[in-house]
Amino acid sequence: MQPFRVPISIPDTQRVTLTQPFGPVSNPLEPEGPNGEPHFHYGIDLVCGDDHHTYGVAIVCPFPSITITEKTWEGAMNPTGNGIVGVYTDAEGVVHKIVLWHCSKINDAIEYKEGDVMAYIGNAGLVFPAPSLRDPYAGAHLHLGYYRGDILTDPLTAFDITNPYRGPAPTQALEMPPAQWVVAKIEAFMAPFLPQATPPAQPNQPTP
Ligand SMILES: [Zn+2]
Question: Roughly how many angstroms between the first and final C-alpha of the chain, as a whole number?
Answer without folding.
Answer: 58
